[in-house]
Amino acid sequence: MFFDAHKDSRVEKEAIGLLRSKQVDGIILSFNEANRDELLKLRDENFPVVQIYRKSSESMISTIAIDNVANGYLVTKYLLDAGHTRIGHITTGDLTQSGYERKLGYLKALTEANIDIDENLIVEGVSSVEAGRECMERLLELKSRPTALFASHDVLAIGAYDAILDRGLSIPGDISVVGHDNIEIAKMIRPRLTTIDTFKYTLGQASVDLLIEEMAVESHQCKELVYPGELVVRDSVRIL
C-alpha cells in the first residue's frame, strides 16, 4: 500500500493509522517532524519501520538518508572551481531538513574558500517553481547580483530560470544555475540543468531491504545508511 501525504502532517498521521489497521508487517515513511510522537509510538511497539530521506532526531529508528550537507558542499565547490565567487543560494532553509542541510554545505564550501558570507545572497522560500521565481527576482535586484546560483531543489531552479530569462539575461552566459534532485524535466529544459542526482531507485531498494531486515529481528537495529549524491554536469554552468 502506498500513501502520499503531500507533506501534510495530519494526512500522514491518518495514513499511519490506516496502515496499522490493515495489519501491514512494516512501514517505510518519510515523516514530518510534527508526527515525531507517532514515530516514537511505532518504535516503542517494536513495529518494523524505516525512515527514508530525512534523518530522524531519534537514534532508535533505522534510516536511509541523503547526505545533504555533502551535496550542498559539492555543488558550491563545483561553482567555486568554475571561477564563481558570488554565488546566490535559493533554499527552503529551516522549513525543511534537506534545505537546512544543503545550506550548511553551501556555507562550508564558501568558508573553506575564505569567502565572506553575504546574507543578501541567501533567499528562502517554499519548494515550488513560483517561489524559485520570486526568490531569483530578489537576487536580481541586488546592486551586485550573483554570477551563479545554487537552488536547493530543481523546482526552485526552474523558477529561477524563468526570472533570469524574463530579464533578458542568459543562462549560463550571465548567470550559472545548479539545482538538486535531478527531476525528469531537468534534462529537458534549455539549457539543460546541472544538478545533483540522489538515485531515488537505489534509496527505495535500500529502504525495502532494510525493512525486511527489521521484520526478521525481534528488536530495532537502529541502522543509519547515508548515501552521497552525484553531480550531473549539463549545460547551465559557465566556466569563468
What's this, in brief?
The chain has helices at residues 9-21, 36-44, 68-81, 97-112, 129-140, 154-166, 200-216, and strands spanning 27-29, 49-53, 62-66, 87-91, 122-124, 148-151, 176-178, 195-197, 224-227, 230-232.
Features of this protein?
240 residues; alpha/beta; Rossmann fold; four-stranded parallel β-sheet; 10 strands; Peripla_BP_I; LacI/GalR-like_sensor
Q: What do you see in this structure?
A:
The chain folds into 2 domains: 90 residues, Response regulator (Rossmann fold, 3-Layer(aba) Sandwich); 130 residues, Rossmann fold. It has 7 helices and 10 strands. Helix 3 runs parallel beside helix 4 and helix 5 crosses helix 6. A 4-stranded parallel beta sheet has the order 1-2-3-9, with helices on one face. A 4-stranded parallel beta sheet has the order 5-4-6-7, with helices on both faces. InterPro entries: LacI/GalR-like_sensor, Peripla_BP_I. GO terms for molecular function: DNA-binding transcription factor activity; transcription cis-regulatory region binding.
